[in-house]
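Quick one:
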Amino acid sequence: MLKVGIITGSTRPNRKSADVAKWALEAARKRSDAEYELVDIKDFELPLLDEPMPPSMGRYQQTHTKRWAAKIASLDAFVFVSPEYNHGIPAALKNAIDFLFAEWNHKAAGFVSYGGAGGARAVEQLRLVLAEVHVATVRAQVLLSMMTDFENFTTFKPHLHHEKFLGTVLDQVVAWGGALKQLR
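Output:
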């Protein structure tokens, strides 16, 4: 069965990505088309990229990198849950992606984002970054507004219609993830 990781995109204190990722995971686990798991980048305690060799060479020396590589290698597809910081993705998420290369290759990804503009600009950056590590990104995405989907900009309370959009993202991620599996 396909394994899909729902990846949190922020590590900062009081982050909202953990709440949003848990919402996505709960909705995903109602489905029977894949195994879904939460992958919190904060748990991997990745410093700024500290590998002496380029990730494309696959010769990881650091224990944290090997642990991160094993987790990403074990997954077939991803849903990135990312806030938008200053019109872009959080540095911690970019760093986590940059640590690896082959482990990302020939897999699919979808997006759940949030911010003042729904996190749309962060998703556009993620699409560019992920293309370089050979991840196919799906068209559907969930855009959450800090003004309407977070009570007082803090408590996550998504509108009900977002679950339908999330279902479309998951449908596409599972379809593409399955199709790309033959390339690995």
